Amino acid sequence: MAVRLGTIDIVVVVLYLALVMALGTMVKRRAARNVASYFLGERQLPWWALAMSGSSSYFDITGTMWIVSLFVVIGLKGFWVQWIWGFIIPVFYLAYMGKWIRRSGVMTGAEWMETRFGSGKAGELARASYTLYAVLTITAFLAYGATGMGKFGAVFLPFSEHVCAALILGVTGIYVVVGGFHGVVLVEIFQTIVLSAGAVLIAWLGFTHVSPEVLAAKVPAEWGSLMPRWEFSYLSGTEYQLFGALLLVWVVKGLLLSLSGPEQLYDFQRFLAAKNPRDAAKLGALWGIIHTVRWPMAMALAAMGIAGLAQQGDPEKVLPEVIQTMLPAGVRGVVLAALLSGFLATFNSTVNGGASYIVKDIYHKYLNPQATQRQLIYASYASSALLIVLGVSVGFAAGSINQMFIWIMGTLGAGVLLPNVLRWYWWRLNGWGYAVGTLSGMLLSLVQALVPYFSTLPLYVTFPAIALSVLVIAVATALLTAPTDPETLRMFYREVRPWGWWGHVARQVGPLTLPSTPGWDGATIVAGIPWLIALYFLPVYLVLHRFTEAALAGAVVAGLSVVLYFTWYRKLEQGETLEEDDPSVRSVRSDRSVRSTSA
Predict the structure, then answer these.
(1) Which value, in Å, is the radius of gyration of the alpha carbons in the chain?
(2) Of 397, 412, 444, which marks where a domain is finished?
(3) Total number of domains in the chain
């Protein structure tokens, strides 16, 4: 296949990549100060920068190709599938989860396990199981990204999909390895600006180039409807035929995932890097707002593909084929730079987050506890490079983007979903219960993927089977073993102040100066979920020329914004301003710092 980019397109893309490489490597010296700087930016980064970084990290090319393919095949009902990865999770971040994470004061999600389950054998096993799952998940996501970048690059470059994946991930991995978290965030601020501008441009092109009449003539009548049915005849023979059963799984998975906090990716890292809990909550809100531009861009690409492509073979290639065949020179280069911003943002964060687990929770914890800061930095370089190689290698064996994503989020995710929920809300879950439950979940998910009979079962069978099995195993193991050390539970409760089934511990701790606020948090979630969904739908309806629905979505956003001002923002400013002056909070943080240093 010949190169299909014009000279001006190549110039734009090369200049963009050169600038990104320069930004990422210019902070090498600062990132190499110590491991806290490499992975958390020494907790001196502003909340809006972390929000821009986190939001753009969700905006990868591979995921966008998958979303576009869903919109092409099933129309607006493709939004229902987005529940599987918890696309409403920013509401939970802003309501309370961002604050809970930041209050723990650790460096990684695995290190957090010791603050919750203690430093004994049970806590160690919980931390180890979390780390194992984190590395497995991150490797799978890098493979997923490699699969998408291979398909994307092969449309424009004269190489096979595998060569394109290795080339793109290998070259862009250079600045990720040396730049650390400072490099990741600095580059992603720039990438968010480029990405947002490109997304708006694509949305405008879709709005101006595809009329509702042309689109309606080329899609089934159900395509433009959001209303689901239990079964769709025009999806016969596909995995989405029994749509209603899958929808139940997607929504339940999304809600539970949002309740469980960040999975073993890079989300934990953003909130741990915030200056204080108030900033962590605000970055959660901005995270969701910035992500809004993804949806009109994806719908515009889907609409242009349906209306303009003579043949649609692999729907996962509609995105690059639209760019290659339907955009003029110059504009094509700008759009490619914007989409590369999305890929690089996700790639940066995934590699940096994965390396933090390997270095902090494997190398430093078990292999070299006396490692110097220089040794830890070199280990960070090596871990980042290793993850990139593993991701590309596993990606060579992957089938489709959809296959990879559904397995990661649906099957593999089911293995830790309910233990991750219980760790926040139920005091009696101990390290043994968490570890045995998650290890069982990983084993079951691998059996599902590798055993031919189980690999053919639909998600609405495998997800509940794995999730409920893990729940029974985790709860039974916890109840059959000793509870977590009381002092660990009391310290965790005083510091994080979670709500849920913590009455036993709360009675031991006594009244807190700054108690949890489940009522206000719940009100924020009830108002925040429809607010965020309406915010996502508003520009999509504009792209489709459905102005009445867009106006209705705008009214919902405006009205619920007022509600959130009173239920969330005012409460946030009033409550969190007092936190740093609370003597009980300062005492707990001092105790935790001493314990962490001695460990």
Answers:
(1) 23
(2) 397
(3) 2
